[in-house]
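[job 0412] stage=complex_fold ligand=adenosine-3'-5'-diphosphate status=START
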Amino acid sequence: MANLDVTLRYSGINFPGHLHTMQSMRFAEEFKFCDTDTVIVTYPKSGTTWMQEILTIIDSDGSQVPAKTIPNWIRTPWIEHYYCKDVLQNKLDNRIITTHLPYHILSKSLKNSNAKVIYVARNPMDIIVSFYHFHKMANFLPEPGTFGEFLEKFILGEVHFGSWFEHIKEWLSHREEFNFLFITYEELKKDLRHSVEKLCSFLERPLLPEVIDTIVRHCSFASMKDNQMINYTLIPNEIMDHQRGKFMRKGIVGDWKEHFTEEQKQLFEKIFQEKMSDSNIWFIWTL
Ligand code: A3P
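[job 0412] stage=complex_fold status=DONE, emitting C-alpha cells
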C-alpha cells in the first residue's frame, strides 16, 4: 500500500493515507483494549520510538532479541495504522500498542479497559524542528516548505496529526480517566536510568539493577541509531528518502536554538503562553 499522496481527513484532522484508512480508524475507535495492554500515546516526534524500545526491552526482561530482530511497527504497532489488525490477530494480551490519536478519537475504546497509558511529551519547539526535518524525508507527508512556513502551519494546527496544543491538553485534562503515566522526552534524556525505574514501577515489572543497566545502554541514542529495527532504514527510499535525512537525527534537547530566529522564538513563546495558560504543563527547553 503506497498512497503516498493521499490524505485521510478524520474527525477534523489530516492523517497520511499511506498508513491510515477509514477502516483502520474505525478499528482503532472500536478496539477492545485489555487490562494487560500498555499504550504509548504521543504526538509525533515526542520520543515515541524511544519509548517503544524501552518498553520492548522491559517486557523481554532485558533480552535484546526482540528489539534487534522485530521491527518496532510489528512489536509495538500503531493501533490506527492499516496493518495493525493483522499484526494483533494472534496477540490477545500483554500487548504494547502505540498511538498518535487524540483523546477524542481513542478515549471511548480505551476507557473500557484498565490498560496502562504512558503519555510521552516533548517540548514543542524541539518537536517542530524534528517534525520539520521528518517532513523532508517522509514522502507520505506534504513538503514542509521553509521552516517559517512549517512553523506557522504547526501553530495553526494545520499539520498532519492536528494541533499539538489540543493533543496534549486534551489527553492531560482527562488523565484521571486512565491508569496514566506522564513522562517527558527531556526526563528520559536527563536521567534515563531513573526514567526506566519509574517505568518499571508503573508497569509493576521490578527488574534487577544489572538488567536496568542493559536497558539504559541499549536505549541510548548512539546504540538505537544503529538498530535497523527502529531506525527506519528498512523502509524503501520511495517511502522515506534516506538521502534527505535520518529518522534518528540528533536526539538532543534544545536543537530549536539552531532553527528559530529571535522573532520566531518570541512569536512561539507568546502563542505558547496564550494557548497553554489554562494548563499547568511545563517543559524543559534546554539541558
Ligand atoms: P530528533 O529529530 O530531534 O533527533 P518519534 O519517535 O516520536 O518520531 O521521535 C523521534 C525523535 O526522537 C527524533 O528526534 C529522534 O532522534 C529522537 N530519539 C529517538 N530515540 C532516541 C534516543 N534513544 N535518545 C534521544 N533521542 C531519541
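Residues 42, 44-50, 126, 130, 133, 219-221, 224, 248-251, 255 surround adenosine-3'-5'-diphosphate (CB under 6 Å).
[job 0412] exit 0
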